[in-house]
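User: Predict the full complex structure for these chains.
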Amino acid sequence: MPKPLKVVVVGAGFGGLEAAKILRESPRIEVVMVDRHPYQLFSPLLYQVATGALPEDDIAYPVRAAIPGVTFIRGDVVRVDPQRHTVQLFDGQHIDYDQLILATGSVGTTFGIPGVEENALQMKSIAEARQIKRRLLNTYEDVQEGRLPREALRVVVVGGGPTGVEVSGAVAEMQASMVREYPDIADHASVTLVEAGPRLLPSFSQQSSDHAKEELEQIGVTVKLATAVDRMYERDVHLKSGEILPAGTVVWAAGVAAPDRWADLGATGPARRLIVDDFLRLPDVPDVWVVGDTAAYTDSGTAPLPMVAPVAMQMGRHAARNIIALASGKLMAPFRYVDKGQMATIGRRRAVAETPQGIRLHGTPAWLAWLGLHVVYLAGGRNRVSVLADWAWNYLAWGIGPRRAIVE
Amino acid sequence: MPKPLKVVVVGAGFGGLEAAKILRESPRIEVVMVDRHPYQLFSPLLYQVATGALPEDDIAYPVRAAIPGVTFIRGDVVRVDPQRHTVQLFDGQHIDYDQLILATGSVGTTFGIPGVEENALQMKSIAEARQIKRRLLNTYEDVQEGRLPREALRVVVVGGGPTGVEVSGAVAEMQASMVREYPDIADHASVTLVEAGPRLLPSFSQQSSDHAKEELEQIGVTVKLATAVDRMYERDVHLKSGEILPAGTVVWAAGVAAPDRWADLGATGPARRLIVDDFLRLPDVPDVWVVGDTAAYTDSGTAPLPMVAPVAMQMGRHAARNIIALASGKLMAPFRYVDKGQMATIGRRRAVAETPQGIRLHGTPAWLAWLGLHVVYLAGGRNRVSVLADWAWNYLAWGIGPRRAIVE
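Assistant: Here is the predicted structure of the two-chain assembly.
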């Protein structure tokens, strides 16, 4: 029997895990998965952890349990050496590969706006979501006890994409539920969503953008379009218009980019994403595959595919199938994205959803679609049960159910 | 209308919260609750957080939501000045009172055994339970990747009371479930329960003690009775017998005592507990009431009442009713504890329970009683729903359900 092909998958996100699940079925292939964390993060629900609607355990799933039989190495890949066919970890360890899949997602980017790095909170990891939750809840404590002014209860969210829309809606609903615990101060809380472009959810139709704005305003979010941030300080956000928004918490959801450590591997497109060929390989380094947010792939001649979970999952599966084809001496297939549509939730029973066929939902039907899809896609059976129970309770007990406690 | 009586309650545990809930019903009384944390901790389930069976959010409930209308101050009371009728917080703030209820629970105590403080993990707070969980789960990662020897998978629990029995049973079941994620190393894991006295659960009948030992051994716990710890090092526990137990994790559940900061307020009984009169006041300082673990009260002429939640709750309610009686010029009543029995869980479908009437349950019936009681007593509706869902899943998916992920 010939030596199996060794495939190293870097990143246990949506793309990497889908690739590993397919690769491990092939008897000719040995799969090694590398990630800094031993869990898969269900990142589309980070905003619910950040606003206390879900416990963090609900959106993390042990990687080893997700891909039994696959060798998992916990480590941070800092360098790829395509000549020697090795990746190097932060601790100095080298792992050799025959084929490499980079599925390393994206990181927040501040566009160099002064003060963002120091004063705004990002929401790309559980640690960051936890930080937002603690800031939001602790601010109520601190204002209640006079350690912070009431203006600290104001929240500014920057970025009108799905993440910004979802987090500002969730913050507004959290603020509404705080009246019972902090009756004296709760009505000083507010949330403002700031978007530099002319509308929210730019990847959606104009109609969905309008619905999203309307529904956010109905639950108390102030939406500021065509409004750019000039700089930030500890206690306020300065807009390019000269207006100053006082804020105790600023959530930065305005932009993401591929990690900058891969920049020397090949040509990059917008947001530092590595340009890949039709088969999802680096054109000049054909044994390095790139999937998900890290990859720039244009299948229709226009902009690269969006940085969302469905793209990453389809790319991960496709790269894996092409590697299996290679190993079996069969023909590889070019990647084509099957767009099943997009959705964003706005609050309890409010969402927008649309498909490329022109189906557009908003309000409760869109929310139900969102709910069903997220439950189906949550990785573990256990997580699914917990999330459903928590959501059911949130939904039934709205206004009387307490927020998660501040546990430090 | 006369000025209301100001009652300060220190400690938002079982005793303090029960007191506050009764006091706030009286129009003649103003209640102020002080605690270091803004949440009530359901401490009897800490061992489930420590072993990854429940997320920490499930056992913490926001204090302000539990007692709406009561002024809550987050702070650490470091001193009581009975002459001036004030308590002093760590930050220097003073709060004056007419009547004071100390409900400050207990802290772990190491009996001065060398190395315990530095090397064993206690389990009195969420932070400590989280630390145990991280140690347990990270040890699997570290052994898997060769950073720790396989002996690190051995766990020693010191103390054969309810906490020690519950945590060692839960660790054994967690270890059994790890086979799927770590098939190469999981069978090197073990748990040893060490108790200095001649039997487990000394407050139970001999029959229940025997059952507990038998059931722990059935799920793989090694039980060592009449075995005292001499000293501890980072990697092993030295027993008085000369035997050395290698251990990557040592949980210290051998003893608790009242906080030492109250020692100058009055006479203390065993475990530094403040001796109280029949009405639950300090004999020499009659406007200071003490309830729960901090109080030593003997209602039958024998040992002080045990440091358990039912005693604290009954004491809290009783002190509150006596204060209301005082405020209304009515007669106070002496405290009598109504013992409804005690129980300890050993594992999935295994527990022991007994009542003072001589009813003794073990195995599944005792476990069902334990389950029902804990669900009824969990503070929040939401927490109850989440805990039930998590337990249902744990129960149904035993052996296939993944552990909580290591989230840092």
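The two ends of chain A are 55 Å apart (CA to CA).
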